[in-house]
């Protein structure tokens, strides 16, 4: 049986391109999408790239995630690669951001990632070389943000998004430590990836990087060799400071 990968939020943008690149590497790619019709359409559009199959999956709905995990178990027996890509962005000045906006963002970007990862752990355990990639953001770096880095675009409007991705980075660190302490999970590698400022619907196509460029680090971390890193935060050029 070949390698099976799940990419959440993959019916468009970076997720779809990541699915394309993984399929080109010979993986069976499960294209996770909250909207089943859009997911099916996206999978059809990638049919020429390899084995891409739509999978209805709403990361904010626990029964939906459980159903997806059960289906993967029944049809594939295990999961080799999990890319937590599904994301949400709410833009407003910090002084105007509401708690409700924060909650909606965290529900997808943080709690959704936890829900999916926990549901997929039994399937990842069965893989010989499981890889988990949490799609983060350079704007999640406390070091760069505190140092006044120019991220481009409207980073000053991303309190909810950037802070949620900083929380996602902490999940990466904590899960890596937990995996290392569990003999049944010590072979799981988990890392955070930042694709940079990518031109997608989420950025209103204002980004300076293409989805092809942005997906490179995600795919690299999804296909790490046995001696690859775990518990880190990376961009295409290398490690990113926390």
Give a quick set of tags describing it.
NAD(P)-bd_dom_sf, 14% strand, SDR family oxidoreductase, alpha/beta
Commentary on this structure:
By secondary structure, the chain is of the alpha/beta class. Helices cover 43% and strands 14% of the residues. It is built from seven helices and eight strands; from the N terminus they run E-H-E-H-E-H-E-H-E-H-H-E-H-E-E. The chain has helices at residues 13-24, 36-45, 62-76, 99-125, 142-146, 159-180, 211-222; strands spanning 4-7, 28-33, 52-56, 81-84, 131-135, 189-193, 233-235, 238-239. Strands 3-2-1-4-5-6-7-8 form an eight-stranded mixed beta sheet, with helices on both faces. Helix 1 (13-24) links the parallel strand 1 (4-7) and strand 2. Helix 3 (62-76) runs parallel beside helix 4 (99-125) and helix 4 runs parallel beside helix 6.
Write the SSE topology.
Layout: E1 4-7, H1 13-24, E2 28-33, H2 36-45, E3 52-56, H3 62-76, E4 81-84, H4 99-125, E5 131-135, H5 142-146, H6 159-180, E6 189-193, H7 211-222, E7 233-235, E8 238-239
Parallel strand pairs: 1-2, 1-4, 2-3, 4-5, 5-6, 6-7
Antiparallel strand pairs: 7-8
Helix pairs in contact: 1-7, 3-4, 4-6
